[in-house]
Amino acid sequence: MCNPRRVRVRASSRLTRIWQEELRRTGRASAEVAGEATLREAFGSLLGAPARRAFEAALGADTRWTWQDGAYRLDLDGGTVVYHLDTGEIEMTARLSDIVTAEAEVVRTLEGTVEVDATAEHTEKYYDDNWAGLSKSVAERSARAQAQERADRDAAEKGARQEEQERLAGRRRLAGQRDAIDAEAHAEAERRAATEAERRRGELERDAETRLLEARTGFLRPVHEVLAVAYRDAIVEYAREHGVRDIQIDESDGTLNIQFEMEA
């Protein structure tokens, strides 16, 4: 065995790391939407003059009806009935409402590339007589492997530190845009809600038309109730004007019965 010799090997490592930071913000918006359908038809003009006067007087006395803009108005569940005094028309309106909601997500992404270089050296010994198998070629391979491992490790550590710094800077940039991104998400949600509201309004209007046609009798029921009172009052007044005193009025089971006797 002779004196050992040494061999030094330098290795280099290049590392490329791609990073990405993302900020997601969600906006929500809602809108109330209504659809209605209206049916207008003659009513007062179909009555005789005395009956019409009695009907309109009965409307004015009925506390369920309110006077507004030259018409008597009655609010119903899901609609209104209006009697126009000037034309004698009945206007029935069915109204349906709903609330639509929409969401929108806005995403902001920042990305970057980190490229780092690192070098490292390692020394191994060998013997000219290859004692213990430590030849120069073996020493070179071992030194190269050790140097490369260290260079790779240094590059990874350096790259990780640089990547973290750039990520933090990216997060700060995104945080500075948070309010603007929130506003954009909210604006987009409102736009979607408006679009959905317009679509839903069309559906509600069609449904209101169907409901109005199917429920026309229900809309007219309170009108006929007032008309019955008007006929009752008109008949009673007529009877009294003609000297009738024994008047019997029975209102039951949705039927109005008036009985009296008149002398010939």
Give descriptors for this structure.
264 residues; alpha+beta; five-stranded antiparallel beta sheet; two-stranded antiparallel sheet; 4 helices; 44% helix; 38% strand; rod-shaped
Outline of the structure:
The chain has 264 residues and is an alpha+beta fold. The chain has helices at 49-61, 136-176, 178-214, 216-241, and strands at residues 5-42, 66-68, 71-76, 79-84, 89-126, 248-252, 255-259. InterPro entries: fvmX2.
Task: Kindly describe this structure.
Strand 2 and strand 3 form a beta hairpin. Helix 1 (49-61) crosses helix 4. The chain has helices at 49-61, 136-176, 178-214, 216-241, and strands at 5-42, 66-68, 71-76, 79-84, 89-126, 248-252, 255-259. The protein has a domain at 5-22 and 109-192. Strands 1-5-4-3-2 form a 5-stranded antiparallel β-sheet. The protein has a two-stranded antiparallel ribbon with strand order 6-7. The protein has 264 residues and is of the alpha+beta class. The N and C termini lie far apart (159 Å). The protein has 4 helices and 7 strands; from the N terminus they run βαββββαααββ. Helices cover 44% and strands 38% of the residues. The radius of gyration is 46 Å and the shape is rod-shaped.
